[in-house]
Design goal:
The chain is an alpha+beta fold. It has a single domain, classed as Chalcone isomerase, CATH 3.50.70.10. Helices cover 36% and strands 26% of the residues. It is built from five helices and seven strands; from the N terminus they run αββββααβββαα. α2 packs antiparallel against α3 and α2 crosses α4. The longest helix has 22 residues. The relative contact order is 0.16.
Length: 192
Amino acid sequence: MTNHMRNSFIATIVAMLVASCVMLMSRDAIAQQVNAPALHETSTSGMPTLKLRGGGLLRMFGFQIYNSYLWTPDGGTFDWKKPYALDIQYLRNFDGKKLAERSIDEMRGLGIGGDAAYAKWLAEMIRVFPDVKPNDRLTGVFTPQRTAKFFHNGKLTGEVNDPDFADAFFGIWLHEKTSQPKLRALMLGSTQ
């Protein structure tokens, strides 16, 4: 093999490795549609009948993170003012405090809230978010009273009585400026 051929071969291998790394390190997560398990009845007690609107799998850097599902009244078009449920089935272990901190980062990215609100909201999320393991479900419910109730595997973990928090929290997945627009589109049942 001549020096020119060897250098050309090495350059090709390096280019392939760089392309592979770029694909794996992409900030955009891959979202794909998935089938939803039924909501726990306790999560929707006192709510209108909620039916699945849409859902998807969040995958980052090749790792499956969670499945998320949006449930709306009778499965109709999502409306911020009507009750709904966001059900997340985790596929990895996560510490509840880390979930709360990541949620604040996402809210900051959306430009919703401010430092004073973030401190209060972080404390509330640490209070209501348990540690999760694969197949655990954390369900957030936007109530008719504009509060956010949280359930871990169907058991109430707490409620946050702050409409601004509810909008910011659910905005992580449903706001038009979400960091995961493909997942949002799947959850809203759209073909964007």
